[in-house]
Amino acid sequence: MINKTVHHAADALHDITDGMTLLLGGFGLCGIPENCIRELVRKGVTNLTCISNNAGVDDFGIGMLLRNRQVAKMIASYVGENAEFERQLLSGELEVELVPQGTLATRCLAAGYGMPAVFTPAGVGTEVAEGKEVRRFHGRDYLMEMAFDADFALVKAWKGDTAGNLIYRMTARNFNPVMAMAGKITVAEVEELVEAGTLDPDQIHTPGIYVHRIFQGVDYEKRIEQRTVRQKA
Amino acid sequence: MINKTVHHAADALHDITDGMTLLLGGFGLCGIPENCIRELVRKGVTNLTCISNNAGVDDFGIGMLLRNRQVAKMIASYVGENAEFERQLLSGELEVELVPQGTLATRCLAAGYGMPAVFTPAGVGTEVAEGKEVRRFHGRDYLMEMAFDADFALVKAWKGDTAGNLIYRMTARNFNPVMAMAGKITVAEVEELVEAGTLDPDQIHTPGIYVHRIFQGVDYEKRIEQRTVRQKA
Amino acid sequence: MMLDKNGIAKRIAREISDGYYVNLGIGIPTLVANYIPNDIHVVLQSENGLLGMGAFPIEGEEDPDLINAGKQTITMQPGAAVFDSAMSFGMIRSQKVDLTILGAMEVSEYGDIANWKIPGKMVKGMGGAMDLVASAKRIIVAMQQVNKAGESKLLPECSLPLTGVRCINRIVTEMAVFEVDTEAGGFRLLERAPGVSVEEIRNATAGKFIAAGDEPEMVL
Amino acid sequence: MMLDKNGIAKRIAREISDGYYVNLGIGIPTLVANYIPNDIHVVLQSENGLLGMGAFPIEGEEDPDLINAGKQTITMQPGAAVFDSAMSFGMIRSQKVDLTILGAMEVSEYGDIANWKIPGKMVKGMGGAMDLVASAKRIIVAMQQVNKAGESKLLPECSLPLTGVRCINRIVTEMAVFEVDTEAGGFRLLERAPGVSVEEIRNATAGKFIAAGDEPEMVL
Predict the structure, then answer these.
(1) Could you report the per-residue pLDDT of D95-154, keeping only the tens digit for each?
(2) How far is Cα B44 from Cα B39, in angstroms, rounded to an integer?
(3) In terms of Cα–Cα distance, which of A79, A77, A46 is closest to A61?
(4) What is the side-by-side order of every strand in the sheet holding B134-137?
(5) Rounded Cα distance, C208 and C199, in Å
(6) Measuring CA to CA, how many Å separate B106 from each of A127, B109, B112, D26, D76?
């Protein structure tokens, strides 16, 4: 067993420098690598390209990096929850590439599976198709989309072991497994870190080969974006 | 919950007819759909195209279909365990397309993920590349390989529920999940069929949306191909 | 009488058949779940990675790890399954999802749809909408027939950046149900909201309007 | 003294570094696992879908659901993980596996390899070999230097159908260790088996042979 454990976020991210490209797991605020994002804020690295489905909210998640002007370019599918984001975008401070959600996920998968490009019908005939190769298969048009090439992937799992194996919980899984596969260096923060041999090999969502550093996170806030409830019947 | 349960293999395969293309899960004899194969033998459908990593052994697995002359074409990566196979191939009775194992898996994935084609470096510069488009990305050559288009996928899981969700056990997983995604109609046989709601949603390997019919198999032989052991220390 | 949002949702629910896997978008589509008849079996897909989405949780039982694509706290049905985003859009792209219901800002008479961007004004992004409209077997749009300025949103062609091309099959608005002729072009009237006349609907449709004149009222 | 199969395996084991993920092919490569030093941490990948392959099971504890790519019954190490065939070759293709060790029928002086087919005689198939040689970061071939007829298997070019092109970095045979110059072409002698002379090795190498003449004996 190869031990992937590091002490904390500062250790895990020590070699992230200005100008790097980062994949950040999560959907909205669900399943985001809170400890890693806090550490990026603390380090103050700038000029980052962040690839993530969303951009957090004004004061949480990637929103903290935006507020701190650490992000030069954001690649995302939906950024509607973030007023500061919209301000920076409209003022030209922030470069943005909006990518269909399935295309975003599949470009991660492509990187993790060593496929340089993939075909998807999403965006055919729209401005997303501009500058991209369109190819017809079986009478239907597809865009050729390129695999992501990112320096780091920062993901959050529920449980992990010292070999880097990861298990996610419910819809906090989302982009985390595909981003974990796609980073040149992948850092995983987990709510509970256990010894290798503790987790059932059949239940691993991300095999440790894809994870370079793992640590047990602290102080998870797990903020809820849209609290919707019903009354007890 | 949508109930996918059928009574037995005969129900599940009632509409398989001569000349169809079938994906069959398993690696060697490990994780093969024993009940489905027995039923194909019993039905006597012929002129089948079978896509499977291996071709079974002479008297078990897909080997039984070969012996019975039910297979017109075999698409596989490795067929070395089967003398009858070799005989039919050399005599010209059987058409064979040999496909690199990773390409085989990825052409299933492509079908399950709605991607018409994928790029892989496997086979570049070899006879596998003949007639295929070669494309260079980042200074490296890749073959464009097409998604499979199969009438049925027959897979074997360890546990399944009435909603069609599947869980595999150890390396009996192999090709089963990717083939389950790739069939126009997917039939799953399981060792244990439970009520929907019994399995942990986080531990499902194949979500029920990919499975059209499920039944609890009987009389699993689970033959071991290469029994290798060590002495107790 | 124009339908309210719940009325539109209720009418759309009648388009759902037993055994369907359905993806519901944000807004009116979310309300459709409330009107699915109890005697049919339907599984809701949420594109953030869940099959078998259930109702909102009982107060106090919200779980931050369990949300839908609108980031709302939800529950799971028995038989639910969780998966990653690549598989989620994999099943959408391979047309395992039978029906997609989503909102729109504009629809053209050829079934083009615009619902993700207002240049210079709004830049929220397309989320999963472009994937859904490009791949879905069948798409129903839930929308208002006219905008706040009283202008029709059923147009000869979309003025806003497109989400997808020739992909919308059916539209349910506060006034009517339409079938879209994506080949020849045109909004074919199928049903009227109770008490709304063909002429009223024609006047609220900027694109090519096709009606025999005897279209029935909706059954809700 | 020519090495036997275990000698070849033992020499190859010295190429494995701490922290490596390694894929071992069928035959001599499988034996390499027996010689990995206890003080380094290595994870064995089996391309049928396992990381953390362990030893053969104790007699009576064989499990038909747990095999390696050679269809042999095996065990799992603590920290093992199981996955499907698409992910297995995904991690191979994305070069997460550090080292691949496999057998060969022929290798050319440019690092081409043939190991899957003898036209008209043998049609077993390539299994995962074509994927592995096309993608692996580093490949070591374990093979006999000469065939049963006494002919060299290290050739100017392969006569059999290729498995991969310009992909072999290193070869360990019963006689020697070679580095392959995939750019200029040539088998560069690095080490000799104990007691085997440079001339003997040269005579058993049909392709371009490169040696300074003072190459050391292997340390086993």
Answers:
(1) 999 999 999 999 999 999 999 999 888 778 999 999 999 999 899 999 999 998 999 999
(2) 8
(3) A79
(4) A134-137, A140-146, A117-120, B117-120, B140-146, B134-137
(5) 14
(6) 30, 5, 10, 23, 25
With an 8 Å Cβ cutoff, is B148 touching chain A?
A: no
Q: What does the DSSP assignment read for C152-215?
A: BSEESS-SSPPSBSS---EEE-SSEEEEE-TTT--EEEEEE-TT--HHHHHHT--S-EE--S-P
Using an 8 Å CB-CB cutoff, list chain B residues near D131.
100-103, 120, 122
Q: CB distance C130–A128 less than 8 Å? A: yes
Q: Within 13 Å of residue D41, how many CA atoms lie on the same side as its CB?
A: 11
Residues 123-152 of A with CB under 8 A from C: 123-128
Three state DSSP letters for A88-131: HHHHCCCEEEECCHHHHHHHHHHHHCCCCEEEECCCCCCHHHCC
- One of D47, D109, D174, D191 is an active-site residue; which one? D47
Length of chain B: 233
- C-alpha–C-alpha distance, residues B87 and C85, integer Å: 46
B2 touches chain A (CB under 8 A): no
Q: Which residues pair with B48 in a beta bridge?
A: B71
Cβ–Cβ gap D71/B81 under 8 Å: yes
Instruction: Determine whether the interchain pair B118/A118 forms a contact, defined as Cβ–Cβ distance below 8 Å.
Output: yes
A164 with A41: CB under 8 angstroms? no
Tell me the chain B residues in contact with residue A106 when contact means C-beta distances shorter than 8 Å. Answer: 113, 115
Lowest mean pLDDT among A156-170, B79-93, C45-59, D6-20: B79-93
Instruction: Report how far residue B26's alpha carbon sits from residue B55's, in angstroms, rounded to the nearest whole number.
Output: 10
pLDDT tens readout for residues B21-53: 999 999 999 999 999 999 999 999 999 999 999
Q: Which residues of D touch B228 (CB under 8 A)?
A: 56-57, 62, 72-74
For chains B and D, CB pairs below 8 A equal 183
Residues 6+ apart with CB under 8 A from B125: B141, D112, D162, D164, D165
Q: With an 8 Å Cβ cutoff, are A116 and B140 in contact?
A: yes
Dihedral class, residue D197 (left if φ above 0, else alpha if ψ from -120 to 50, else beta): beta
Q: How many Å lie between the alpha carbon of D60 and the closest alpha carbon of chain B? A: 8
Would you say residue D22 has pLDDT above 90?
A: yes
Q: Which of A117, A137, A169 is facing B116, going by the closest CB pair?
A: A137
Which chains neighbour C (Cβ–Cβ under 8 Å, 3 or more pairs)?
A: A, B
DSSP secondary structure string for all residues of A162-214: TT--EE--GGG-TTHHHHHHHEEEEEEEEEEEE-TTSS-GGG-SB-GGG-SEE
In chain C, the largest separation of any two C-alpha atoms, in whole Å, equals 53
- Contact residues, chain B, for D47 at CB < 8 Å: 101-102
Angstrom distance (rounded) from CA C197 to CA C203: 10
B139: nearest CA partner in chain A:
A116
d(CA B222, nearest CA chain D) in Å: 6
* Inter-chain touch D123–B89, beta carbons under 8 Å: yes
User: Is C174 noted as a catalytic residue in this protein?
Assistant: no
Query: Taking the complete model, does pTM exceed 0.95, yes or no?
Result: yes
**Longest alpha-carbon distance in chain A:** 54
Which residues, including other chains, have CB under 8 Å from residue D35's CB and lie 6 or more apart?
D6, D9, D10, D12, D13
On the 0-12 / 13-18 / 19+ scale of CB atoms within 10 A, C75 is middle
Supply the pLDDT for residue B126: 98
Q: Is there a contact between A71 and A97 (Cβ–Cβ < 8 Å)?
A: no
**ipTM (interface predicted TM):** 0.97
Chain B residues within 8 A of C51 when measuring between CB atoms: 207-209
